[in-house]
Structure formats: structure tokens, C-alpha cells
Amino acid sequence: MYIILVYDIKLDKEGQKVLRKTFNICKRYLSHIQNSVFEGELSKSQLMSLKWEIGEIIREDKDSVILFESRSDRWLDKEMLGIKEDKTSNFL
Amino acid sequence: MYIILVYDIKLDKEGQKVLRKTFNICKRYLSHIQNSVFEGELSKSQLMSLKWEIGEIIREDKDSVILFESRSDRWLDKEMLGIKEDKTSNFL
Questions:
Q1: Would you say residue A90 lies in a domain?
Q2: In CATH, what number is assigned to the domain containing residue A22?
Q3: What is the pLDDT of residue A14?
Q4: How many beta carbons lie within 10 A of that of residue B48, not counting itself?
Q5: Domain residues for A33?
Q6: How high is the mean pLDDT of chain B?
């Protein structure tokens, strides 16, 4: 499955730690393409463990993670305006 | 076509103005679902004019906008962890 993941972490007192952990988890599964955006191909079991790990970190009432799941990237076209691909990718 | 749009605007001196304009343009075409994430169904001509308007605002060397285009939302599943749908949607 092709996955696009976007997160919005509330930067309150513990927010920085949650953000760093969330970023590091996502980097282990997906490619970092923009500030809080990741994409990549995952098996169902990888997707399940990614969701489980994220669920252990984020705060239900403060943080938001959205996953778009497509059966294949064949049905998804990607277009980038402005800066292409996030060269830095060492966001933190 | 089903569109997912994500932007990352560099918040330097004119960044706030670019961010506000980008947000307002996106809101006219798509639904705001998270901090810098929009989604919705657009015709090809609507998509072209959205891209044109955004191209007029963002700075090629500083800002990044990614558009994922899927022929239909039937091939896309969306899952939200943490805070559901951005109720506020008056981000600015």
C-alpha cells in the first residue's frame, strides 16, 4: 500500500519531545518529503506497527496524524511547486 | 480528481503574508483538514487555476507545495489518529 502521512503536533511543554519521537518513528517507515509530510510503500503489517507506535506517542487531545492509504502509487500523481523534495530531511 | 495538498511556507519577513494568502487560496478550492493540509474533489480546470494562483504567491526557493492527485477518492482511504478533522479551520 502507498502511504502519505501528515502530522500536526501541538508544540506545548512536552510537544518538542513528541515531535522528535514522531519524526523518528515516521523516518523508520517512510520517506520525509516536506516539513511534516512522509510517503512510501508499506505492507499491511508495517502499516499496523507504524500506527501502533505513533498511537503510543501522540496525545489524543492535542496532536493529529492523518494517513492516506492508496492500494498503489499507480493511482496517485505527485506534483511539487516551489522547493522540490526536502533535501535536508534532517528536520530535527 | 481527488486532491490532497500540503504546503510548507518559510516564515521569514514576508512569510506570514505568503502563508495567509496561500491558506486563503486553498480554502477557496479545498477543505482544510489539518494545519497545512487540504483535500477535496476538483475538476481539471479548477486544479489548473489553483496551481496557477499558488504559483503566483509562493517563492520558488523558499516555499514548498505538494499536490497528490488521485483519479477518485475511491482509491484512497483516510485515517486520522489523535484529533479528528480540524474543527477550527480558521487557522489564521
A1: no
A2: 3.30.70.240
A3: 94
A4: 11
A5: 2-74
A6: 90
Give ∠ CA B79-B82-A17 in degrees, rounded to 5: 125
CA-nearest residue of chain A to B83? Answer: A64
Q: How many domains does chain A have?
A: 1
Q: How many degrees, rounded to 5, is the angle at CA B41 between CA B38 and CA B44? A: 110
CB contact under 8 A, A6 and B62: no
Is residue A38 classed exposed, middle or buried when 0-12, 13-18 and 19+ CB atoms within 10 A define those classes? buried
**In this structure, are residues B77 and A68 in contact, taking their beta carbons and an 8 Å threshold?**
yes
ipTM above 0.85, yes or no: no
Q: Which residue in chain A is spatially nearest to B55 when comparing CA positions? A: A81
With 70 as the cut, is the pLDDT of residue A41 above it? yes
Of A4, A82, A84, the CB nearest to B68: A4
